[in-house]
Amino acid sequence: MGEYRTELVVVQPTSLCNLNCTYCYVPGRRVATRMTFEALEAVCKKVLESELVKDEIEFLWHAGEPLLAGIEFYERALNFMATYNKRGLRIRNNIQTNGTLLDSRWANFLATHGFSVGVSIDGPSFLHDMQRVRWSGTGSHAATLRGVQELRRHGIRPGALCVLTRAALQSPEELFDFFLDNDFSAVAFNVEEVENANRTTSLHPDEGNNSVVAEYTDFTRRLFDRWWPHRSKIRIREFHDLGQVFAAHRVDETYSREVFETSPLRILTIHRDGNISTFSPEFAGSVA
């Protein structure tokens, strides 16, 4: 095993969310408690002074709707980082948002301070609005797209995070065309899971057969065929990761990929209450 190092710190500013997505794993989505400024300062200080952090570190603001913490929260975070980054580390900030609260003020702030932005969006409205709904039950697709457009007006080309449900598996071409047509820089697909606050999934194998595996296989094949001619325009995480493995294996047949998500201390996840976990950033209720 190589030396331990921390490369990604997932911070949950709040578990509060203005959406009630049917598959969400995050508990406490109606709890308005925010990480205190004292805890935020301690996070920045301890991370930036840690011997586990080498040349660079990424902060991912995630789990709940991070924009609900308010701009002042992130202004404080940036000030704390400037204060405690005495080693001159390269610091990257990435925020994962549902996009519905993005306005010109938020987009300007994120652009000015060099944040990378991931938007949680499940493709076209006929898929997205089945699951990504407000607490009233109405869809959020139009508001999310307005937020994406605001980002673009400020020079930010966001990535997309899409959750695959049983319905989505039937529409790989429509999904890909949506992300391509809306000029997302990249897309990552997470499968709908039974996890923490989410107790059901549409991807359970059918009784007596395993058709969902066949559907997922067919989805992946059709998605790849649709993406390949456009591969220079948009990155798909799953295909990118596989490509890296194949390339490394051609050079060294004994190559074995280290799984980032399960490497001890590579990822730290810090809950709004200050609790800490490592491994996958799905800590909120246990990150992405």
TrEMBL record:
PANTHER family: ANAEROBIC SULFATASE-MATURATING ENZYME HOMOLOG ASLB-RELATED, RADICAL SAM DOMAIN PROTEIN. The keyword Iron-sulfur applies. CDD domains: Radical_SAM. Keywords: Iron, Iron-sulfur, Metal-binding, S-adenosyl-L-methionine. It holds the Pfam family Radical_SAM. It comes from Geodermatophilus obscurus. The lineage of its organism: Bacteria, Bacillati, Actinomycetota, Actinomycetes, Geodermatophilales. One of its GO terms (molecular function) is oxidoreductase activity. SUPFAM superfamilies: Radical SAM enzymes. Residues 1-230 form the Radical SAM core domain. It comes from the Bacteria. This is Radical SAM core domain-containing protein.
